[in-house]
């Protein structure tokens, strides 16, 4: 792979939407990419639409845990390796599936995930900031919020 010249032309994106992703496995994968000549990698997470094809509401806690895991991967990787993170928001699982988790119900999840990434973690203060930004009185992380 390193002799092909591909590592000078592209940057790989590592996708994982799990709330319990294998942090050490991802760090090892990044090390393998580096040994092949890739200088930068991207991470791909999801703020909605990755927990079930017929899901109608977004479970914020699942996506928040995923982003916190990605922050751990970033902190255990060389400082210059991460080019960025893509927050995907899947609308359907394939072109023949029904729509799932429409964008309006996922806005709180997007806000929580972005704030967690921006602040390098999640706390009660961040929760309060998101509630204030969205004009919400009680942001529910671990239940399906309506």
TrEMBL record:
Task: Give the highest taxon in the source lineage.
Answer: Eukaryota
Q: Name one GO molecular function term.
A: hexosaminidase activity
Q: Which SUPFAM superfamilies match?
A: (Trans)glycosidases
Q: Which PANTHER family match?
A: BCDNA.GH04120 (PTHR21040), HEXOSAMINIDASE D (PTHR21040:SF6)
The name this protein goes by in its record = HEXDC Hexosaminidase
> What organism is the protein native to?
Bucorvus abyssinicus (Northern ground-hornbill)
Gene that specifies this protein:
Hexdc_0
């Amino acid at each position: 792979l390193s002799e092909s010249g591909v590592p000078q032309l592209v940057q790989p994106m590592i996708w994982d939407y799990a709330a319990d992703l294998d942090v050490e496995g991802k760090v090892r994968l990044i090390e393998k990419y580096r040994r092949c000549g890739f200088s930068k990698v991207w991470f791909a997470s999801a703020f909605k639409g990755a927990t079930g094809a017929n899901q109608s509401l977004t479970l914020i806690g699942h996506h928040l845990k995923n982003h916190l895991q990605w922050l751990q991967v970033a902190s255990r990787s060389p400082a210059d390796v991460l080019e960025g993170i893509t927050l995907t928001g899947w609308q359907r699982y394939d072109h023949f599936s029904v729509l799932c988790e429409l964008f309006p119900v996922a806005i709180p999840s997007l806000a929580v995930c972005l704030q967690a990434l921006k602040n390098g973690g999640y706390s009660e203060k961040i929760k309060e900031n998101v509630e204030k930004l969205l004009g919400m009185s009680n942001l529910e992380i671990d239940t399906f919020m309506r």
